[in-house]
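If your schedule permits, I should be very grateful for your opinion on a structural question. Please examine both parts with care and let me know of anything in them that strikes you as inconsistent. The record follows directly beneath this note:
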Amino acid sequence: MNVRTREHGRFYIGPNGHRRFAGSASGVYLADTIRHKLASHPQRDGGVMEAFISQLEGLPPAREEQPSYTPYLLTAGDFSDEAELRSRFNTYFANWHPLFPFLDGAYLQGVFKRCAGNARAGAAVFEGMGGEHALVLSAIFRSIFSIGGTGRAGPGIPIFTDSTSASTLAMVVLGACESNRLDHISTVQALFAIELSLYFARRFRPASHLSGLINKLVFEAGLHRCPCRYPTTFDLPSERDLRKRLFYSIYVLDRFLTRHLGAPITLRDIDIDVCLPGAAEIHGEPPSSVGSTDPAATKSTKRKRDKEREDDTTPASPVPVHPSNPQTHDGAPPGSAQSPTTPFSESQTRASAVNKLMPAFSLAQLAGIMGRIMETFNGSRRWRAADAEDAMRIRTELEEWWIDFELDMQDVTQIQTTDSRGRYTALFRSLYNQNLMHINRHSLSLPPESIPHRNALQAIILAARTICSSLSIELGPYPGSAGPGSASGSGGSRGVGPAGIGLVWPGYVDMVFDAGLALMYGTKVSAKLADDRAAAGIRQAVLVMDRLAEVWDGLQPVVMVIREFNKRLDPHRIASGTGDTPDLSLDWLIGTDFNLEANPSGPEYMFLPGFGAGLGGNSGIGPGSTGLGGMSGGGGAGMGMPGGGVGGGGEFGGNADLLHSFNLYANGMWPGPMPNAQS
């Protein structure tokens, strides 16, 4: 049997008047073939396609009265603190939109100004808009204000206060789509905005549940198919661009949630043929395109792209990646400095538009590598068949990605080029080291005296120390800070991070915990890792956790363990604590979900009196801490993504392997129960 056939799927118009996708497995190709064969017959095709579509769609939904969305829509009262909402809006688009460019920033900019104006005039916020349109915008704005506040609460600010309210709104949006009142693209944008807000709040399980729903809508809307393959269906460059950006935003977040929870991959690369936004279009740009994407972008290095762009002045599609900063746009004096959210105009070149997409481009590339790491090392035991060559191939992919990124960043400083990824250097550096840990972590299941175990341990320890050092610089005290709780310097991020860095990544917690486990494990099995070297990394981890506790509640279990690690490695630097000695067997941590809704009670913190001198001299690091100085900061900066991986089971997924290895050496050494560990 010849399996290399030409059967394929296609788009069709659904009952709601919008496009839906029927995959080849549905039999749409055969139905099309029969329809074409009958097209020349006097009686035509007899309604073959109509019948096929009807059996795809099933029974039409019952006729309903227009539902009332009023309880879920934003009101004039929600816009009472317009300045705060503007700040959150700008913070979101400056920090998060370049990584997840699934929205049309310029359009939302205009809607925000219109809504604020209506609120000031006492009119309905969404005056003149349909109910479904207002529902989608309410979901998106509420998500933006939740993320842009960087963990800050605010009286009267329309944010999600818990996962239940977010999930309820998501179901209302889905209901509008199911009743054919809302198109798939608007539905997916609204649902993904809610998912991203849940991810930011570290409510990973509700976010993952919503991700599964979104993935099904992705397939139904055909977002997993490159729009350039269907030039008559998607004839506008702006529409093709938006579909690509929306799909890869979903793809990236799905990868991180999957790895964190240790779940199988649902958006598999073998089911996807969408070209990366900003990369070469391998399916060819349709003739109607105003300007094609960069033909050299898949080479990854901006150095290679720049050479081929020198004579290219084709204007880009006018779909902006960044909206205007409302404060600058509404009254900044001429010649004043522009914020990172200043838009690019239609007259700017395609090269500039592609440069705006580079953070998302690099993150999507890495998400693909992450998926291959999980498939190689963490698949079902029955089908797992990774060998040394597979491991080398994955490691090579990761190194190529990182080398390309580093060389691009060197060009920025050496030849004064611009790269929109520059402000995310810390994020990508830490992601690289985190993935090094994941590639090597499986070897820790081997005997400690074996060469593969020793080699992997050294790589993991180096990556762990780099993560701790980088994050302590990125999130530690900095000149001009007013201490924890300050909103200066990072767009209202409660003093987390140096000036100009407002992105506070939810995965910091998991990265620091992974690194702490690795360093402690290394001191027990490797004579070459001196306690004082491990202690330096653990001290930096404590500093980072103190900062993160300002943004997210419910981190007490992790903070407690990291502090106890520090006490065991360097007891003379720790103020004496009270209560029982924690049990560091860590079995209780497997299955614990550290998120905003968890708030276990625990013993009082043991505070560190000596941090800050080498990191900028900020006072008041951690609640109730006093006395500064005594630690100099290492080089580098970094951010992270959720750790955990796949393969171990429980909330931390692949972390269970490392936890188990650590337990082999910790059991019996630190007796006694963890106080309130199970609360």
The beta strands are 10-13, 19-22.
